[in-house]
Design a protein that fits this description.
Helix Hairpins; 2 helices; about 0% strand
Length: about 100
């Protein structure tokens, strides 16, 4: 059985992936805010109390659901940032112990 010699992680690639996830969270938050402002009173368009209540209930449920996705993306964003920093720090410490300048060439 062949055992892999190791693996390589590029802190720059992890940082880039983290930025993408962070940007997605920001975009989703912006869309949710714009959508909420534009449609908050949409239930009144039909002029019936029962329709307004149903619409508002649906609107609130979707708003909350999108909030869950934003929270998950924010957690992933922070985890990727921390991972990139951890890998970069490990690279720098390893290079310093081996007499190098640290970081990737």
């Amino acid at each position: 059985m062949l055992v892999p010699e190791g693996f390589e992680v590029s802190p720059d690639q992890v940082t880039s992936a983290g930025r993408t996830v962070c940007e997605l969270a920001d975009d989703l938050r912006s869309v949710r805010s714009t959508w909420d402002g534009a449609t908050r009173d949409g239930g009144r368009a039909c002029g019936m109390d029962i329709t307004e209540k149903a619409y508002t209930s649906m609107q609130d449920a979707w708003f909350d659901e999108i909030g869950v996705h934003i929270a998950i993306l924010e957690q992933a964003c922070e985890a990727l940032r921390a991972s990139a920093q951890g890998y970069a720090g490990t690279d720098q410490r390893g290079a310093a112990r081996l007499g190098g300048g640290g970081g990737r060439e």
